Amino acid sequence: xxxxxxxxxxxxxxxxxxxxxxxxxxxxxxxxxxxxxxxxxxxxxxxxxxxxxxxxxxxxxxxxxxxxxxxxxxxxxxxxxxx
Amino acid sequence: xxxxxxxxxxxxxxxxxxxxxxxxxxxxxxxxxxxxxxxxxxxxxxxxxxxxxxxxxxxxxxxxxxxxxxxxxxxxxxxxxxx
Amino acid sequence: xxxxxxxxxxxxxxxxxxxxxxxxxxxxxxxxxxxxxxxxxxxxxxxxxxxxxxxxxxxxxxxxxxxxxxxxxxxxxxxxxxxxxxxxxxxxxxxxxxxxxxxxxxxxxxxxxxxxxxxxxxxxxxxxxxxxxxxxxxxxxxxxxxxxxxxxxxxxxxxxxxxxxxxxxxxxxxxxxxxxxxxxxxxxxxxxxxxxxxxxx
Amino acid sequence: xxxxxxxxxxxxxxxxxxxxxxxxxxxxxxxxxxxxxxxxxxxxxxxxxxxxxxxxxxxxxxxxxxxxxxxxxxxxxxxxxxxxxxxxxxxxxxxxxxxxxxxxxxxxxxxxxxxxxxxxxxxxxxxxxxxxxxxxxxxxxxxxxxxxxxxxxxxxxxxxxxxxxxxxxxxxxxxxxxxxxxxxxxxxxxxxxxxxxxxxx
Lengths: 83, 83, 201, 201
Prior knowledge:
Distance between the termini of chain C: 5 Å
Helix content of chain C: 25-40%
Number of helices of chain A: 2
Number of domains of chain A: 1
Pfam families (chains C, D): MoaE
Mean pLDDT of chain A: 96
Mean pLDDT of chain C: 78
Largest sheet of chain A: 5 strands, mixed
Low-confidence stretches of chain A: none
Number of helices of chain C: 4
Keywords (chains C, D): Molybdenum cofactor biosynthesis
CATH class of chain C: Alpha Beta
Radius of gyration of chain C: 17 Å
Strand content of chain C: 25-35%
Structural class of chain C: alpha+beta
CATH superfamily of chain A: Beta-grasp domain
Distance between the termini of chain A: 42 Å
EC number (chains C, D): 2.8.1.12
Enzyme class (chains C, D): transferase
CATH topology of chain A: Ubiquitin-like (UB roll)
CATH topology of chain C: Aldehyde Oxidoreductase, domain 3
CATH architecture of chain A: Roll
Low-confidence stretches of chain C: 153-201
Strand content of chain A: 25-35%
Shape of chain C: globular
GO molecular function, one term (chains C, D): molybdopterin synthase activity
Oligomer: heterotetramer
Helix content of chain A: 10-25%
Number of strands of chain C: 10
Strand order of the largest sheet of chain A: 2-1-7-4-5
CATH class of chain A: Alpha Beta
Largest sheet of chain C: 5 strands, mixed
Radius of gyration of chain A: 12 Å
């Protein structure tokens, strides 16, 4: 389990609130997206409420009950506003 | 009544069948489009059946029961195929 | 703006002008091209005949109807006439709107209505020398009827109504499924009149 | 083909290339422009941030879904990122088809889906110096849901489903009617990363 981690990417307003755009996040065992968002909120209280945030795992949109595992690329962002 | 007439325009296949694109047509009294189409078919039997033909009176689409009066510009054509 | 002309058109320049005149969030365009109309033979060219004056007036009425129904900043229609080669542009419709849904709806309405109301007629010249007047597709009349409009002239016959009134395209038996009408080989030359008309609205 | 780039694009050249590759009867295009997003203040510019890689993959998946649903010869999407001034082009969608109805449907589907699935974020810089991240409009999520698709990430919460599955956009209370979110005056600079990605499919 040592060294097990995910790569976390922050975009747009989320990146502004965390003050970083990318970091490595230790993940000893897999968790649901919702549980991981609780960890995220504990570290960055300024992101609350995290229920509004969207997750992508390995560059695919996922629901909050999706599983996150070591080695994943996890992106956190507000609902998209392109087009 | 002397000299009362309509201006008739033929387009596309109708012009080919009549052999002309425009002519003056004596019209002593007003008629319905359907009745006038009967006159047209009598003169140009090659246009039969005339029920398929469309009429415009003074550059507006009209139904066959519309009235045609002296002085009108009457156009005769197959259903349109632009675009 | 409605333009009927023989010359080809520069859609990009037209769209840039449209955009310059409005702070539109969205522009939707439709471009129609000369394709193979006959199922079993290659199209060499099309000849587009039209009814000058009525043509522009009908298209302007169609654009006005679209503007009454959806939020439209401006509609632009360019339609070519005369001899057009395979793959050339025939028609361009552009609609500028603050709302993309309205722009899509209005643009499709305009081209659908144009196909059943604007007095143009296509003669197809095949690669083998045959020549045909293209017949109206029932599908086009059906599409127009779906917008709640009566296709032009569908109201011929006793139960008919004027083209501006609501009605059904299904009133004309015998119009369906006539993909093309053979006139005669090379009989088309006498109908060739190509005029250039330009009207603004 | 999907292109994400900082530079402006030449829609006419792109459409001409599309037409050259197919004997399409119809090409429908959508162009989106920078407009005033705030109701009460003038927009000076937009900054478009994106998620390189995922962005192109999502748009390609959207185009593939459109091609599976309608008759499409080819779809083309160009989306700009970085700093864009008022009235500049943001996005261009072009769809070539033998059938105009399919071209209209596919083009509108693609832009609707892009707005709720493709990972772009707009920051609006107002003329008075304020800066805002634009929030997703509920109307955009609703439009996507009307196509039978689930807007990306609408499935957060216990009743959620993956974004690829069918579902309803109404599952997220509190997302509605937030036209914009104030972050802070000029707080935007640290988020500014503008990359140019070009991918073909």
